Amino acid sequence: MGVSCSKDYPDIIDDVCRIVSSIGLHPKVRDKTDKRIKNPNGSIKIGRGINVGFSSTPLRRFMDYIGVHGRNGKNFAIPKVILESPKSVIREFIRGLFESDGHVVKDCCAITFCTLSQELASQVQFVLLLFGIKSRISKKKMKLKSWTEGRSYFYVTLGSKSSRIFSKEIGFISDKKSNLLRTNSEKKKSNKFRDWNMTEEIVSIEHVTCDVFDISVPEVKSYIANGFNSHNSSLKVLEYQAIGIMPVASDTVTYRSAIHRGLLAKNGTSDWYFKMRNAINMDAERAEAIDANKKFVNREYNVKDTALEWIAMFRNVLESKQ
Prior knowledge:
- The protein has 322 residues and is α+β, with helices and mostly antiparallel strands.
- The chain has helices at residues 10-22, 57-65, 80-83, 87-101, 118-128, 160-169, 175-186, 235-242, 253-258, 269-281, 283-301, 303-321; strands spanning 2-6, 28-38, 44-53, 102-104, 111-115, 136-141, 152-158, 222-225, 228-231, 248-250, 263-265.
- The protein folds into 3 domains: 1-65, no CATH class; 72-188, Endonuclease I-creI (Roll); 222-321, 3-Layer(aba) Sandwich (Rossmann fold).
- Helix 6 (160-169) crosses helix 7.
- It is elongated and about 95 Å long.
């Protein structure tokens, strides 16, 4: 196993050696030869790269287990374990990814990430949304050098505003890229600067009949679902209360504020069983709660009483678009 790095980034080389040593391995640093360039005598020339090598069968098995593998040892998709990790873990993964294949555009505040994999480019664009970073994907075919001729690369590009958010929320690891991005971010915008318009026109609407689901993520109000900024929904429990059904729901922020008289269950089968059994057995209390819930929904969510609030909201949206 090993990590390749340019000699222009000594801090990255030191960081890799430190991490490898911290898990009990012994890194071996060697100059990287460039097979594309040969000396006059025909020998392969030493390039600008450094190889930090280390050997560990358990580490290799662990990397395979979590999905860090791919063609020629390269990963062409973000491992599932990363996508399911907390935001802090995803942040560090993106920092490393952009440090290796990311580029700060010279003389302007922009960042590009390059990959052979369209899937990886789409995943990177997706996870950047977790940090409020918008990006665009473009495809380019390399024709400048024989060893890359015919290959198509995918570029994830961050504009001026997104690059500034990237600098604040994620950042690079190396001093070289960090300093260049900081310098570019501090430059004043030119008169030609225009922020990206990321809106898309709806070209068709199809009416279908299908199953729909009411999903709530614990302890948060919004979350990213397949690239869409989604909001926890309390609609289902409100409908239950409006038609006279006693709600039993997960003990989350969304349901706590939406259920007037109901039962909230902690994660785990035992608490759900206990709360559902109580809802079935409490006949008198259930009838009283159902009546109170109907009055609650009618009072707090009646269109007649909330129409002015809706009108004010739509007016603010329309005014902001002008």
